[in-house]
Design brief:
Elements: H1 2-37, H2 46-49, E1 51-59, H3 70-85, E2 93-97, E3 101-107, H4 112-120, E4 125-135, E5 151-153, H5 176-189, H6 197-205, H7 211-227, H8 233-238, E6 249-254, E7 260-265, E8 270-271, E9 275-283, E10 289-296, H9 298-311, E11 321-325, E12 328-331, E13 343-347, H10 352-364, E14 370-379, H11 381-410, H12 414-439, H13 445-474, H14 479-511, H15 515-545, H16 549-552, H17 562-565
Parallel strand pairs: 6-12
Antiparallel strand pairs: 1-3, 1-14, 2-3, 4-7, 4-8, 4-11, 5-13, 6-7, 9-10, 10-13, 11-12
Helix pairs in contact: 1-12, 1-15, 3-4, 3-10, 5-7, 11-12, 11-13, 12-15, 13-14, 13-15, 14-15
């Protein structure tokens, strides 16, 4: 029976090394992954890295005040969130504040300026037919727009073969007068009457305008077009103000050469809600390079098929449709045949960034409400750095106080506690660095507070175990059996305590929004790591140290001195002498 017992003892002694080797391998693997990914520091939130905070206020259209409700506000938040996330700014925060406001926090970094621009672009998306266009600031000609080298085609086998440049048919020598007359004639001719649902509803709700009214509107629009200078930011901001989807309007857009171009646009034929999905695709089959593919809803497919069929019969530039977002023309592809397949592809001088930007606008551009910017606040990197420095100082002070307490009260055992805290800190840092690119986790000031609170939670687990070991020593047991007997009781207490902390963090994460979620996430993460460190590092390390003479002999600085702990002497049984039984005395002995 002795041999099996010896084997079991050897197996038990090998377990501490297994656990320590396992956590060491995990740290090395995670650290290697951190360096291979190129993200060696955690991503910082807006309050630590600097950035922009935008407050948007919902503004209902006339007679539609009831449109500002929780459903539409939540939809707007979701669209804005996906819009900025589509540009890789995954740590941006979009959340409602009150009944009418949305707060958008965009940290400084890659694509942050483009994300800020798209978040501010809060109006609805429309597809409008192009009546006339020219480069703004040039002689009044209808010269082609270099940005409008894009074309729209169906994804069916019979792709549309549109012209490579959606230019106007007016010759470069055309004068301003002839161009204005062309605009007026085009508007009076109305080559592309609206087929959208909104236009039909508007037409049925009001009597048709007289020819004199139409002529007056065309003359007014002609004057606006002639006076419009898209190189002027104030003029661009006012272009098309007050125009309804059913109205013709003027607009500005920037081409691929950076030139501003002005447009006369007809009534909206398709709106953003008719686009089901849009993607940026690298087309290697036809050599078209980066393109944008669009899938329409069933109703949108019919509208798009109708308008492209009518546009295909016209000459440039009236065979183009403009994609208009917040009054700006973001693209103006041309068509040469009806696109009735429910999908289309826009090709042209795209690179990956411009194709992805257009796809995002098409996918997430149709907000259910109109928003106005109430305030834009910029947090400088210097201010963020000061807050980060203050948070780190607070963490260092908290850690120092915990270490001082451990050394003063537990003496030699403090080495185990400090080593465990260092392992927990290393795991927390590496995992936070990896979670940045993986799920968009950004370390903000509340998250730093959560990490500071976790120092106390982790230290509490060590204290529970140390006190259980001390209780066993007070009962008269030596160190090695005391370490093993104390573990089951300490383990239960640690698990219950960490479960309560994790549950509180999970509830806080679910019921809160914004930066408070950073605190809850960090608290939950460090609580889970506390369990890992205690099971795979603290307990195995204490098992090994118990074999060391300095600790097992109960040195006064080991923190396990039986005399200082008031240990009871070991209980030993003593044999009493047997007393003779009482009885009658033998007369002879007497």
């Amino acid at each position: 029976m002795a041999a099996p017992k010896k084997g079991r003892s050897a197996s038990a002694q090998s377990k501490p090394w297994r656990s320590l080797a396992l956590i060491l391998i995990a740290i090395v693997a995670l650290t290697g992954g951190m360096f291979l990914s190129g993200h060696t520091t955690p991503r910082l939130g807006i309050d630590l890295a600097g950035g922009t905070s935008i407050t948007l206020r919902a503004v209902p259209e006339a007679g539609q005040e009831s449109a500002i409700n929780k459903t539409n506000m939540d939809t707007a938040v979701d669209i804005m969130n996906r819009r900025v996330n589509g540009l890789g700014v995954s740590e941006a925060e979009v959340q409602t504040q009150g009944d009418k406001n949305i707060i958008v926090n965009i940290p400084k970094g890659t694509n942050s300026e483009e994300a800020q621009k798209q978040v501010g672009t809060t109006a609805k998306l429309y597809f409008r037919p192009v009546v006339a266009t020219e480069v703004s600031g040039a002689a009044a000609t209808a010269s082609p727009s270099p940005s409008a080298s894009s074309s729209a085609s169906s994804s069916d086998t019979d792709k549309a073969t549109s012209s490579s440049s959606p230019s106007s048919s007016t010759t470069p020598s055309a004068t301003a007068t002839s161009q204005g007359r062309a605009v007026t004639d085009a508007l009076k001719a109305d080559p592309t009457p609206s087929t959208s649902a909104s236009a039909s509803a508007s037409a049925s709700a009001s009597p048709p305008a007289s020819s004199s009214d139409a002529g007056a509107a065309a003359t007014k629009l002609e004057a606006q077009y002639a006076a419009l200078d898209c190189t002027d930011p104030k003029a661009r901001a006012k272009a098309g103000d007050g125009a309804k989807p059913t109205d013709s309007t003027v607009a500005c857009g920037q081409n691929s050469q950076g030139q501003w171009q002005k447009y006369v646009l007809g009534p909206a034929e398709v709106d953003g809600t008719d686009v089901d999905e849009a993607k940026a695709v690298l087309n290697t089959t036809t050599g078209a390079g980066w393109t944008v593919t669009m899938d329409f809803t069933s109703s949108g497919a019919k509208k798009f098929g109708d308008i492209t069929g009518k546009l295909a019969q016209n000459q440039p530039p009236q065979n183009q449709f403009a994609i208009v977002l917040d009054g700006d023309v973001v693209s103006d592809p041309s068509v040469s045949q009806a696109l009735t397949g429910g999908n289309a592809e826009i090709s042209g001088n795209f690179n990956q960034e411009s194709a992805q930007s257009l796809a995002n606008m098409l996918s997430y551009g149709a907000l259910p409400l109109t928003f106005k910017e109430d305030s834009v606040t910029t947090v400088t990197a210097a201010l963020g750095g000061e807050q980060l420095k203050a948070g780190l100082i607070a963490g260092a002070i908290g850690l120092a106080l915990v270490v001082i307490y451990l050394v003063a009260y537990y003496r030699g055992l403090a080495l185990i506690a400090v080593a465990s805290l260092l392992v927990s800190a290393a795991l927390t840092y590496v995992i936070m660095s990896l979670l940045g690119p993986a799920i968009g986790f950004a370390l903000n000031l509340p998250a730093v507070c959560g990490a500071i609170v976790a120092i106390g939670i982790t230290a509490d687990s060590f204290i529970v175990y140390f006190e259980r070991v001390r209780d066993e020593i007070r009962e008269g047991r030596s160190l090695r059996p005391a370490v093993e007997r104390a573990w089951p009781r300490a383990r239960r207490t640690i698990l219950v305590s960490d479960f309560v902390s994790f549950l509180a963090a999970a509830v806080l994460f679910i019921v809160t929004v914004g930066k408070v979620q950073g605190f809850a996430f960090t608290l939950g993460l460090t609580t889970l790591l506390d369990v890992v460190v205690v099971f795979l590092f603290t307990k195995p390390l204490l098992t090994l140290i118990a074999r060391n003479t300095f600790f097992s002999s109960g040195h006064s600085w080991s923190g396990l001195d039986p005399k200082r702990l008031g240990a009871k002497p070991p209980l030993r049984r003593t044999r009493r002498p047997v007393q003779p039984a009482a009885g009658p005395v033998d007369p002879k002995e007497a």
